[in-house]
Specification:
disordered N terminus, about 35% strand, single chain, eight-stranded antiparallel barrel, globular, mainly beta, about 0% helix
Length: about 250
């Protein structure tokens, strides 16, 4: 993601013939303002920025950021932009705009609206959690998990999460995570849970920690039921491959 001063022209947010196959999906009422939208989305896709237009594809302000947006007005165009080839997670969309999250190689993220015609959708079918692509160490802002091969039907997850300052709390998980039938989600708990429903779903609540793990091949999306550590500790978030120590620094 780039955050340089810019000069811009008015953007056209109308659909193109190349976008005729776009299908509206996701919760259109979500504000598109944070990881909550991704973690709680029932359906997720990945996409890359295409070359069908300007080199820089600027984020567009949401209604929460400016009551007059989103629109074609230049005042709705943000400084932050992506370029062709950048990959995003898409959590909701319409024929003109898509709610996306960009995660850099260092783990910094930006969520917002992009013109939908500038996205080439990759897939909503991702690597299985017990595949080589998904096994290993993954990290989020304040948590790290490792996935390893288990017996048929599950993987083993080990993880630590922290919260602070000013006060510090921590949490940890360790044990089998049972894989769902399609292989792209798994659930961790003392009892059998395969991640088919959200960890916080009332029908799935239990007295202990419950974690849902979802593969997006290039990312790992985790949500929990807020019972996996001390006050304020959560494993919920978007994870990238590699340990926390590799996430230091700021991307260009």
């Amino acid at each position: 993601m780039r955050l340089l001063p810019i000069c811009f022209t008015l953007m056209t947010l109308t659909s193109t013939n190349a976008w005729a196959g776009w299908i509206e999906f996701g919760d259109q009422s979500l504000p598109c303002s944070g990881e909550y939208d991704v973690i709680n989305a029932a359906e997720l896709y990945t996409a890359t920025i295409n070359k069908d237009g300007a080199e820089k594809v600027h984020f567009i302000k949401t209604k929460a950021e400016d009551s007059t947006c989103p629109s074609e007005s230049a005042s709705c165009v943000q400084e932050a932009y992506l370029v062709p080839g950048d990959r995003v997670i898409v959590s909701a969309g319409s024929g003109t705009l898509a709610c996306v999250t960009y995660v850099s190689s260092k783990g910094s993220s930006k969520m917002g609206l992009l013109p939908a015609p500038r996205l080439d959708f990759e897939t909503n079918f991702f690597a299985k959690l017990d595949s080589k692509e998904m096994l290993g160490t993954w990290s989020s802002d304040a948590s790290e998990v490792s996935l390893s091969k288990g017996d048929s039907g599950f993987i083993t997850i080990d993880g630590d999460a922290t919260r602070g300052p000013p006060t510090y709390n921590s949490g940890s998980i360790s044990g089998p995570a049972f894989i769902s039938s399609e292989g792209m989600t798994a659930g961790y708990e003392e009892e059998h849970y395969d991640g088919e429903k959200a960890a916080s779903d009332p029908a799935e609540l239990s007295g202990g920690c419950r974690v849902r793990i979802r593969s997006l091949t290039h990312y790992l999306v985790i949500d929990d039921n807020d019972r996996c550590g001390g006050q304020g500790v959560t494993f919920s978030g978007i994870y990238i491959k590699g340990p926390l120590k590799n996430r230091e620094g700021i991307d260009d």
